């Protein structure tokens, strides 16, 4: 190990104190590793000191370099990179979670952790949190009245492209895409949404056309010219016709639709490319979804949670499954939940799920059920009053039933 002379050990280990990680790395803001420790021999087949002086990309498999570059592009401005899943550059392409934080110093330095991949529900939460972070930055500019544009860009045929290109060609193309997308964003503010979809905050209104042209030229110059197609849509965050709360609702919904269905879905709801046109689409969806929640057009699937000691069922987790047409043919339940959150209906859905679970508990006196409650609902006083009212009303629950209802915060 080679400690960095400008990095006090106390500061370094405070930054690493909460890391449940296999590899611990300190790097300069341009990504060069200056300190390394951890299970390098077991994971990478090298001593930790052999990583010093190399770029962070050395640790990551080439197909995931674009996500790494996007994350590092705006890291200094944001101060922290939420955990994301990457593949290591070892022979097994082992999956790992990559997280980073900027430690103030002269010059600034980055502390990076690579650790085990959590369970699937935790991964969904992290992806959602990353999406919310990007959305919050857009919302902050919207509320502050800063002239900016939300650019949603998609490189089509992404899976086909990855399947047909060599590893080296993928690495070169993804690095070029990451560099182009990050350069277009305000302070490098961009998000790799997945499946070749990128969200970018741009200061240049109308700049999405320039970004699409640059990405198209990049694609045409390489071996993916016959495979990939670039398309995009821009939405101005300046919307004087809308109240801030309306504009934020429209923004969240547009992002959720783009994440679920790509540029075609985003263009369908965005219309002329304004938040006002998105809001018109939202209004219809809100009315339909609210009615569906009130009329219980969903079912709960009860997944047993089993003791590892004796295989007995401790409780069941209630998983919401909406009926069509609340979800499209290519949408998942997670897409539905994200849309509900974007439309501001999380509180109503959480209450409906809790009440449906309580009805099941009344019919099953020996069972216990856990329901998922959003952090958005927990912060809402109106939700508190409604839930407590249901739990204390003997016609709805009563103490004996309420004691068998568990809550998982999401």
Describe this structure in words.
The chain is of the alpha+beta class and 410 residues long. The protein folds into three domains: 9-117, PAS domain (Beta-Lactamase, 2-Layer Sandwich); 122-289, Alpha-Beta Plaits, CATH 3.30.70; 296-409, EAL domain (TIM Barrel, Alpha-Beta Barrel). Helices cover 45% and strands 22% of the residues. It contains 15 helices and 13 strands. The strands form three sheets. A five-stranded antiparallel sheet has the order 2-1-5-4-3, with helices on both faces. A four-stranded antiparallel sheet has the order 7-8-6-9, sandwiched between helices. The longest helix is centred in the middle third of the chain and has 27 residues, at 244-270. The protein is globular, with a radius of gyration of 24 Å. The two termini are 39 Å apart. The model is unreliable at 1-7 and 119-130 (pLDDT under 50).
